[in-house]
């Protein structure tokens, strides 16, 4: 297989957390992709929570023998993107800005790595709007000349499968989406 062919079978998976990315990693590997996980989540609050989720992601990536690209923790970028939207409800405009911020960074990582394809584990959650996240990913992909794969990882019991993987590995399980504004929605 030529180097070019191997690059065509690489994909970057933006991971929102280890719980949500277990099944997507497994699914993509079953499709023959070499998966590189991009962990970019400047929305997570507080930093101690971020570190717990990052450690769980490392454990998952070790289990699946896939590379993880750990982006810098940049909460100021999230707060800038969410400015004026702090009181929006979950699934509102603040979440749209958050998806955009994280998928934009994922696309930039893909470009830096010479990988044309990317997707996200965010869409496995039944709490997230698949069409909105997919549209955001596709718009960003066009901007960078990349391919966003709008894969509905929820199909074929994906959410149950990802939770089973997380339970089997004893992964840290968070009890809110991530940002400090979402904490009140889950308490």
Q: What is the strand and helix layout of this fold?
A:
Elements lengths: L2 H6 L1 E5 L3 H13 L3 E6 L7 H18 L2 E4 L4 H8 L10 H21 L3 E4 L9 H15 L2 E2 L9 H12 L10 H7 L1
Parallel strand pairs: 1-2, 1-4, 2-3, 4-5
Describe, in plain words, how this protein is organized in 3D.
The protein is 53% helix and 11% strand. The protein has helices at 3-8, 18-30, 47-64, 75-82, 93-113, 130-144, 158-169, 180-186; strands at 10-14, 34-39, 67-70, 117-120, 147-148. The N and C termini lie far apart (52 Å). It has one domain (3-179): Rossmann fold, CATH 3.40.50. The protein is an alpha/beta fold.
Give short descriptive properties of this protein.
187 residues, alpha/beta, Rossmann fold, 5-stranded parallel sheet, 8 helices, 5 strands, globular
Concise structural overview:
This protein has 187 residues and is an alpha/beta fold. It has helices at 3-8, 18-30, 47-64, 75-82, 93-113, 130-144, 158-169, 180-186, and strands spanning 10-14, 34-39, 67-70, 117-120, 147-148.
* Number of beta-strand segments: 5
Label the CATH architecture: 3-Layer(aba) Sandwich
Structural class computed from helices and strand pairing = alpha/beta
The average pLDDT is 94
Helical amount among residues, as a percent range?
40-55%
CATH class category name:
Alpha Beta
Could you give me the name of the CATH homologous superfamily? HUPs
Query: How many structural domains can be distinguished in the coordinates?
Result: 1
Q: Oligomeric state of the chains?
A: single chain
Biggest pleated-sheet summary: 5 strands, parallel
- Strand proportion, as a percent range, falls in 5-15%
